[in-house]
Specification:
The protein contains 11 helices and 10 strands. Strands 1-2-3-5-4 form a 5-stranded antiparallel β-sheet. It has a 3-stranded antiparallel β-sheet with strand order 6-8-9, with helices on one face. A two-stranded antiparallel sheet has the order 7-10. β2 and β3 form a beta hairpin. α9 packs antiparallel against α11. It is globular, with a radius of gyration of 22 Å. The termini are far apart.
């Protein structure tokens, strides 16, 4: 049977020497270097914007992937049989950011800050479909709060509770209090923020900033896989990355502050950005994720993995609070103009 992926690759002006399955994509060795063929579920307009932005980054010396044009001048290749669209992009073989390495993680946040700082110079119009709603985070937290409450009510009304459900109810009130307090503070910030300040907080966001998308290659450190890019509050990228690293390091206070400082040394954070960073990290998102997984799963059988995850969240809570308290202290100083 003819390989569909080979037929898709024929739409490009490249000679394919060999291919190998990768993580949800096809690694290609070509006469023009290493490339990656990947399914793309976005619109044509999104692909065109992504092409232009990656060209902008490359032209300004930012090492990153680039999209290849098809032979007929398109940005996407179409599989006429399945109707699926694909992108062919340059690939930078190398090692992913090692979450256990302090140097790797600090370099990664510096690279993220470089990306945010550089894209502020992008002068072309940002498409409307990329722009997030001003209250998208507030709406998200309010929805999560309702979902947590729904899970609590369901478990409370059960006559016989399993181990997971008993653990959940034991800590629910504490985490729900945190969620409500963060939501309250975020609502107040959104009401008080001046449009000019809020505009400075916005920019192009990678949208999926994690260790898998920051790679060290022969060309140096690079940020890849921009398909989920959005135009939003930039510290969302920093918060997502810091949260993942902190969970791996048992919320090491020293490392957490170092990560934020490393970003700040490249792109200075506004006091309002520091506050939003705190609010994004203070929301008990891991607890919500576990509850959400429980809610969408078969209640008659509880995964031991869910119990392990909840126990780990509980075990890390003291360290997490210690880190958040210190971050809150620095945020307060910044708001008072006391940070150097």
């Amino acid at each position: 049977m003819y390989n569909r992926e080979e037929e898709i690759l024929e739409q490009y002006d490249v000679e394919i020497r060999s291919t190998a399955k990768g993580r949800g994509a096809l690694n290609c060795d070509t006469d023009k270097g290493a490339m990656l063929l990947k399914e793309f579920r976005g619109s044509k307009d999104r692909a065109v914007f992504l092409f232009d932005l990656l060209e902008f980054l490359s032209a300004h010396g930012f090492v990153t992937e680039r999209l290849m044009m098809t032979q007929d001048g398109g940005v996407m290749a179409k599989d006429e049989v399945s109707g699926l669209s694909y992108l062919l992009k340059t690939r930078h073989p190398g090692k992913e950011c090692d979450v256990k390495s302090r140097d790797d993680t600090l370099t990664a946040v510096r690279k993220l800050a470089e990306f945010h700082k550089l894209t502020k110079q992008y002068e072309k119009e940002i498409p409307e479909f990329l722009k997030a709603d001003r209250n998208s985070l507030l709406n998200e937290y309010e929805r999560h709060n309702r979902e947590l409450n729904k899970v609590k009510n369901y478990i409370r009304n059960k006559n016989k509770k399993n181990q997971f459900e008993m653990l959940f109810m034991k800590v629910y009130e504490s985490y729900m209090d945190q969620a409500l307090e963060v939501t309250k503070r975020l609502r107040r910030q959104m009401e008080e923020l001046e449009d000019g300040v809020y505009g400075r907080m916005w920019g192009l966001c990678h949208g999926d900033c994690n260790q898998h998308n920051i790679v060290f290659s022969q060309e140096g450190w690079t940020l890849v896989n921009f398909e989920q890019m959005s135009y939003d509050v930039m510290v969302q990228d920093l918060a997502n990355f810091v949260r993942k690293i902190m969970e791996k390091h048992n919320f090491s206070t020293g490392l957490g502050i170092e990560l934020i400082t490393a970003y700040d040394n490249v792109r200075k954070l506004l006091p309002e950005e520091l506050e939003q960073l705190y609010l994004r990290l203070a929301y008990p998102k891991k607890f919500w994720k576990i509850a959400n997984h429980y809610s969408s799963s078969r209640k008659s059988w509880i995964s031991g993995r869910d119990i392990e995850k909840l126990e780990k969240v509980m075990d890390q809570e003291a360290q997490r609070k210690q880190f958040l308290n210190l971050l809150f202290y620095f945020t307060s100083k910044a708001e008072c103009g006391m940070m150097t």
